Amino acid sequence: MSRHLISFVPVLALALALPAAQAEKADRLKPFIFTQEKLGRVDAVNQRTELLGNVVITKGSLLLKAEKVDMQETREGYHQAFATGAPGQPVSFRQARDVPGESIEGVANQLEYDTRTETVRFIGNATVRRLRGAAVAEEVTGAVIVYDSRTEVFTLEGGSTSPNPNGRTRIVMMPRVQPGDDAASAPPASLPLKPSTTLQPGKPS
User: According to the UniProt entry, where is the signal peptide (predicted)?
Assistant: First the structure.
């Protein structure tokens, strides 16, 4: 499977700082379910599945929608999927977190999903949000966003395909306490994004 790499761009890593809160753990044991509207091809010898036309993939709470998906099963039994959107209709991804009522959702021109590393790579005009119910808690936009569902770390890369001017990444963090709210009586909320202590910013060209 081809990889889309961007060299010499600023890299920023952020973590959703809630160690016990990860993507829905039960999803790992759920089967993949595929639906599509156009042609499809299953190559049992090479363990490869190609889907085309309003493709919808579910795996527990995980929901992926794309125009085209190419999925390969590795010898170890893991799956690697490469999804592509249609003009004006990006790939969309959504998955519940173990925190009740919270989920991660994102859109991009292309998407790579790897069950071995449990990472989702949003490529081109990428936007990823953490939702608390229907409300947006955090929003991140950039050229490439890699989400590790096990560690809850986002890696952000700038570049020419960023939705923001000059390839800059953009992060929006909504306040957990709104004006007029009683902070003392408000229920505990999950912590916001914070800088990673393991990854360092890359050097621009």
Answer: 1-23
